[in-house]
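Quarterly update from the structural biology core.
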Amino acid sequence: MASEGGYSSTFSAMYWVWHEPAFRSMDQREGSVFTLELAQRLLDHYTVLGGKTYEFIYSVLDPQLKKVHLFVKEVDL
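Predicted structure, tokenized:
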């Protein structure tokens, strides 16, 4: 275990994008990402994927499968 909380130091990030009326899996999948990098992304509140800007809506941590599900909505800044 990498930390006192018992969580791994790396997780897979999976993106889910809002398409009315539901979230859909985005092809954008990343390999393992360090937890600090994920935390920095979530604190930024916005991310750019494939040339589009997305706002983070919420996230779900699945420690057993070492995955973080990131729910986003496309925005026009």
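Helices lie at 35-44.
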